[in-house]
Design brief:
about 45% helix, six-stranded mixed β-sheet, Glutaredoxin, antioxidant activity, Thioredoxin_ResA/DsbE_sf, Thioredoxin_CS, oxidoreductase activity, 6 helices, Thioredoxin_domain, alpha/beta
Length: about 160
Amino acid sequence: MKNIFKILAIFLFCAVCKAQQTEVPVVKYEELEKRIQQEKDKFLVVNFWATTCAPCVKELPHFMEINNQHAGNPKFKMILVSLDRLVDKERVLKFIKNKNLTAEVILLDDIKRMNTWIPKFEKDWDGNIPVTLFYKNGGKVYFNDGEMSKEDLEKTITENLQ
């Protein structure tokens, strides 16, 4: 019986380690746009954040809890888009590990063109973070400007993930 628990513990440890990214893809806006379009058959949650943004860091545990609840659902996907600087990529990787981020993390290295791509995501987005966009069937269904509570996140997902 003890051996079964040991094997189970090792399996769970490996599953958690596998769930975390060991590398962060660095993309430009066009690549992120393509990535979002590739998920058009899913309800997609896209959160823009940074390791230096206190409200972003505060809301991430809620996002991870919700992401983990829907981990087995093939119709659900969450992408965390880091707006940290490219030189801070190692800090982002360390943050993923320390905060146990299980959602896919992408580093958007396109700050110089932010006045071009921000309005393409949402005309009312002033550039502040955190920001969360929700897509269903390839179209945007909701835009949340600012920190999102667990209840609001759950409600938005529940209303759209049918």
